[in-house]
Amino acid sequence: MLTIRGVNVFPSQIESVLLEFGDTAPHYLLIVDRIDNLDVLEIWVEMNQQLFSDQVKKIEDSEKKIRKAIEETLGINAAVKLVEPKTIERSEGKAKRVIDKRKF
Amino acid sequence: MLVKQISVFLENKSGRLAEVTRVLAESNVDISALSIADTTDFGILRLIVNDPETAEKTLKDNGFTVSCCDVIAVSVPDKPGGLAKVLSVLETESIDIEYMYAFVGKAENEALVIFRLDNPEKAVEMLEKAGVKVLSSDKVYKL
Fold it and tell me: What InterPro entries does the database record attribute to this sequence (chain A) (predicted)?
């Protein structure tokens, strides 16, 4: 579990939001950082056939939809970045889904 | 009349475009035209190739996100007002252009323009009626 700006976030919650955007939940990575004393969350989501389009505005729409769904479910703002498929590291056994860069 | 265009999702980092062209070269696919739409984080590469099916398959096999859509190719006289004539037909028929790009063909005195439209079938019909030369897919793939 992560605490971002005082809100408890379980990666599994994010996974269930992402399930709406693919046949299987796309691979994702949460990157948490602290900028000017505020926690910021960035979510990298692997591109899939359902999110892709030949038009920029449709892809940007997909990003916005994910961001909105995350905000509605978790109550936090997150930046969403779409990355190429298979670029998020696959680990054997327990998946590593969080990079926390914060220094306490 | 509709031409297949391959679109590829590219992250904005070095070497991605080189990788696409390498994969296509290995499967002997010839690129006739291309255009890139770029944003801060990603780009969309759009390609017209001689063999869209092979291109789509090999790119997918190599882990790229690829989609295929229909565009039209129009031959425009290489003189002032050439493109204006084509665009005015589309304007009159209120056919929206999602995007377009031009490339130089091998034929002299004409430029080729690729259009991504919301209603390509109607566009082809109207353009031909207005005397605009719309290229067949066979011809475009051979360019």
Answer: Adenylate-forming_Reductase, AMP-bd_C_sf, AMP-dep_Lig_C
The number of C-alpha atoms within 13 Å of B2 and in the hemisphere containing its C-beta is 15
Structural domain containing residue A78 = 2-100
Tell which A residues from 21 to 60 touch B, by Cβ distance under 8 Å.
47-49, 52-56, 59-60
For residue A52, which residues of chain B lie inside 8 Å, CB to CB?
Answer: 7, 9, 65-67
Condensed to tens digits (0 to 9), the pLDDT of residues A11-57 reads 999 989 999 887 777 889 999 999 999 999 999 999 998 899 999 99
CATH fold group of domain B70-141: VC0802-like (3.30.2130)
Q: Which fold has domain B3-68?
A: VC0802-like (3.30.2130)
Shortest Cα distance, chain A CAs vs residue B23, angstroms? 16
Number of domains in chain A: 1
Taking an 8 Å cut-off on Cβ atoms, the answer to whether B65 and A60 are in contact is no
- How many other CB atoms are there within 10 angstroms of residue A58's CB atom? 13
Q: Are B65 and A81 a contacting pair at CB < 8 A?
A: no
Which part of chain B has CATH 3.30.2130.10? 3-68, 70-141
Residues of B with CB under 8 A from a CB of A: 5, 7, 9-11, 16, 37, 39, 41-42, 44, 46, 63-67, 69, 98-99, 116
Nearby residues of B38 by Cβ (< 8 Å), 6 or more positions away: B12, B44
Q: What CATH number is associated with residue A35?
A: 3.30.300.30
Q: What percent of chain B has pLDDT over 90?
A: 73
Q: What is the ipTM of this complex?
A: 0.84
User: Is residue B45's pLDDT more than 90?
Assistant: yes
**Residue B107: Cβ-neighbour burial (10 angstroms; 0-12, 13-18, 19+):** exposed
